[in-house]
Automatic annotation (TrEMBL):
Transmembrane segments: none annotated. This is Nitroimidazol reductase NimA, pyridoxamine 5'-phosphate oxidase superfamily. InterPro entries: F420H2_bilvrd_red/Heme_oxyg (IPR052019), Pyridox_Oxase_N (IPR011576), Split_barrel_FMN-bd (IPR012349). One of its GO terms (molecular function) is coenzyme F420 binding. GO terms for cellular component: cytosol. The keyword Oxidoreductase applies. It comes from the Bacteria. Keywords: Oxidoreductase.
Length: 150
């Protein structure tokens, strides 16, 4: 991967904290949901409930598509990422705790939380490993995207 595009991807990942992730339901329909995420380089982590449809979908089929972006007032300022990736449950306790620390670092200024922060025993932690990343940057032209294989 070209170093310039890698830096662009990492900058976009670091600038955001939520993504829309699509999993595959048992009936074949995609299910898109919004989740918070943190990244360690190009590896992303997110949490979900152990009894959620998303967790069940991922335990059956690890393929996901996701987007990371934000709203802009000017069309030509649109930037973002989309990925085809694989998501697998993190079973290593040390990695799960690291993922939780990374996620909390994305939200440093919480005034109050109505419930305690979940532990790795309370939630499923998933690691997302990209296969293909599309880097959207309208400043380079309308709908311009650079496609990167990982």
């Amino acid at each position: 991967m070209d170093e310039k595009i890698r830096r662009k991807i990492l900058t976009l990942l670091d600038q955001h904290r939520i993504m829309t992730i699509a999993t595959l339901r048992p009936d074949g329909w995609p299910q898109a949901t919004t989740v918070g995420y943190a990244n360690d380089g190009l590896t992303l982590y997110f949490l979900c409930g152990p009894d959620s449809q998303k967790a069940a979908n991922l335990l059956r089929d690890d393929r996901v598509s996701l987007t990371i972006d934000h709203d802009t007032a000017q069309v030509m300022d649109i930037t973002g990422l989309s990925m085809a990736a694989h998501a697998e449950a993190v079973v290593d306790q040390a990695e799960a705790e690291k993922a939780l620390r990374l996620l909390m670092a994305k939200y440093p200024k919480q005034i109050s939380m109505p419930v305690p922060m979940p532990t790795s025993a309370d939630v499923c932690v998933f690691r997302v490993t990209p296969a293909v990343i599309s880097v959207l940057d309208y400043s380079k032209g309308f709908a311009h995207a650079d496609l990167v294989s990982c």
